[in-house]
């Protein structure tokens, strides 16, 4: 697990964008399968990426999927796809056919099955699991990641690629990429910023498998943590 720490949120976002662009530049002849998380943290990165790094990004070689989705339609302000569409798809020249959204408006159980099949068809398989090139994760203050919340640890070892889940804080239904395909990714990158995340960062970096985010960070093969100083505030450096 490799930490990258920057003074501010915007410097962290810029560093991650350049890190991702460099990965794409290093392998100029292939498609990258990228799974995005939602929530509020990636918004700044999406905005900067589409507006300030548009020209240097080979959008046509990037297939976008989602790590998780709230079971709401795209126009709902909670929609993870809706956020990325607003900040990136409406701004950067991303081919429509490269974007594979979770349909939050569908019945959750059926959508988890539909999207699992879609990902299993489009994303190359390794170890009999889809192998995303990059899975971009956030972490909640309660230690959840994807939409795998504390108490839902069974999703970390599920045999299904996506499962229905829910947010225990408000009952909101979710669709979640489960633990095995997350950990099977070439790279798992956490983007965690803000003072409110200092405790969960400390837990990820200093505890055992005490929450889903820590479990993933400890068991995935190639994990990078992009953080700003406030989020890394409890790490002795
Ligand atoms: C979601 C996300 C989730 C997110 C964390 C952090 O749908 O909510 O995918 O896993 O990464 O909850 O959310 P914030 O960035 O809003 O703190």
Description of the molecule:
With 237 residues, the chain is α/β, with parallel strands linked by helices. It is 32% helix and 20% strand. It has seven helices and eleven strands. The strands form three sheets. The protein has a six-stranded parallel β-sheet, covered by helices on one side. α1 (9-26) packs across α2 and α2 (42-52) packs parallel to α3 (80-89). It is globular and about 45 Å long. The two termini are 16 Å apart. It binds 6-phosphogluconic acid (6PG).
Give a brief outline of the structure:
The protein contains seven helices and eleven strands.
N-end to C-end Cα span = 16 Å
Ligands bound to this protein structure: 6-phosphogluconic acid
Radius of gyration, taken over Cα atoms and rounded to an integer in Å: 16 Å
What fraction of residues sit in β-strands? 15-25%
What percentage of residues falls in helices of 4 or more residues? 25-40%
- Residue-averaged pLDDT, rounded? 98
| Helix and strand sequence | EHEHEEHHEEEEEHEHHE
Number of helices: 7
Number of strands: 11
Envelope shape: globular
SSE class: alpha/beta
Uncertain regions: pLDDT < 50 for 5+ in a row? none
Q: How would a textbook summarize the main sheet?
A: 6 strands, parallel
Strand order of the largest sheet: 1-11-10-7-2-3
């Amino acid at each position: 697990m490799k930490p990258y720490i920057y003074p501010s949120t915007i410097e962290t976002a810029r560093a991650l964008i350049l890190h991702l662009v460099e990965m794409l530049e290093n392998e100029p002849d292939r498609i990258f399968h990228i799974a995005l998380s939602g929530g509020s943290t990636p918004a700044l990165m999406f905005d900067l990426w589409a507006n300030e790094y548009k020209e240097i990004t080979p959008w046509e070689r990037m297939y976008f999927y989602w790590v998780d989705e709230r079971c709401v339609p795209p126009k709902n302000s909670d929609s993870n796809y809706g956020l990325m569409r607003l900040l990136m798809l409406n701004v950067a020249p991303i081919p429509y056919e490269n974007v594979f959204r979770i349909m939050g408006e569908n019945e959750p159980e059926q959508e988890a099955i539909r999207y699992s099949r879609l990902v299993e068809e489009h994303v190359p398989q390794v170890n009999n699991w889809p192998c995303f090139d990059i899975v971009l994760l956030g972490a909640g203050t309660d230690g959840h990641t994807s939409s795998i919340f504390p108490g839902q640890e069974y999703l970390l070892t599920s045999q299904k690629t996506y499962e229905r889940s829910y947010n225990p804080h408000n009952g909101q239904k979710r669709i979640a990429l489960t633990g095995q395909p997350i950990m099977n990714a070439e790279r798992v990158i956490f983007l965690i910023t803000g003072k409110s995340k200092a405790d969960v960062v400390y837990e990820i970096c200093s505890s055992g498998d005490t929450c889903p985010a820590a479990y993933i960070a400890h068991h995935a093969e190639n994990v990078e943590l992009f953080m700003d100083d406030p989020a890394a505030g409890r790490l002795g450096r």
